[in-house]
Target: Purple acid phosphatase family protein
Amino acid sequence: MSGISRRGLLAAGAGGAVLLGTPGVAAASPELWRRPGALGAPPVSGLHLQFGSDASREAVVSWHSTASVARPRVLLGTPDGGFGRTVEAETTTYRDAKSGTEVQVHHARLTGLRPDTDYVYAAQHEGAAPELGTVRTAPRGRAPFRFTSFGDQGTPTLGKLSGTTYVNDNLGSPFAGDVTAAVEGAAPLFHLVNGDLCYANLATDRVRTWSDWFENNSRSARYRPWMPAAGNHENELGNGPIGYGAYQAYFSLPASDSDPETRGLWYAFTAGSVRVISVNNDDVAYQDGGNSYVHGYSGGAQRRWLEAELSRSRSDPGIDWVVVCMHQVVVSTVDKFNGADLGIRESWVPLFDKYGVDLVVCGHEHHYERSHPIRGQQPNDTRTPIPTDTRTDVVDTSRGTVHMVIGGGGTSAPSNKLFFAPAQCRVITGVGAADPSTGKRPPIYVMEDAPWSAFRDPDHAYGFASFDVDPGKPGGHTTMAVTYHAVTGPYGATVPVDQFTLTRPRRG
Model:
């Protein structure tokens, strides 16, 4: 970023006086703050960003508390100009059904921003010290930028190491913190979280688990939007009519004309020439994976929205790339884990084929693998995807969709040691009758060969992918340089494991 350093912002928020500006940089309207005294107000906690539907002009600053606060607001400015605008926050609440705790989440919507521009902001409410952050808006039109992705994180808050497994009640490990440091080191414009954020539905204290997740990730998410997809472990019994009440409260995501019950479960936004579409697979997946079985909850509304959104995106001459972010998977080659889901192959994949989706990023399986470009399905019981090419270094996505399983965000239950050799896939084709003792419906599996399998990483449990968008030149091709970075140790240490290039004809 320009003008004011990120380190300076953090130091300013640590205590004492805050002078907006930095040595050697003229500030048009500096403000001197004194940290408020101890007035009993809760702190600004879990500060994080989201983009609006137009990432070049809209962003949301969010934080939460478990007590009422007065006048939540954001002061907005530029690195060189100082804070010159105040945006009042709206408060959304939910009451956790397990603990009875009410959580208040404060969302300040920033509109009218300039594309490809750095902003500084301070989130505050009465009696609390301001928390500072920065946000860079997306470029408008075709321009280079980077985004990143992983799923299945958990929290780094631990009990003990038992054998080779880290023990807590929400599947966390120390790598849930290391991967955050690694993503922040990559400095993406935005980060996609492919579901199963913190596993609160497994936790003894669900509210504390959400708080731990935001506290861990705020060191990145206050500087760049972390844009989520809801996974099965965001389904928490009693929290809202279909279990996603906490997720829906913590995030203020682009509107999709959905009903209030399904607000935020599917949405889309544009950054440069990339359209990102986030969907919630529990609506169509057969697997019973959350606290309640909600298969078919939207009554087809999500599928209708998705088809309309894909059609609009592909007819927009300013959009080159269509990227889908979701949780459960179309492809997987591990044994004794979740497997691929026929429900997604039946409901989503025909739409991906029809409208030429370029890339799907997902999680659910706790390892890294990717497919060849796929288009069409075999006429069998599992609707096996058909690869259109077997080259692995350069992939033309106009010929088919590449699926990436990026589920090594930090969970204590990795699946990278469970790969079939040679590659095969277990596909969930339905569920059996509910078990009276648990209420869960056991999956029904059918095996298939995996001609679509392109790359698998058995050696590393944790990591994330980065995508560097190059718009190319008119009349030529646009590319994404993709790297899967295995996270190998503390402080975000990484090693590149898989590198390849996605390419397609540029539309303008």
Summary: The two ends are 29 Å apart (CA to CA).
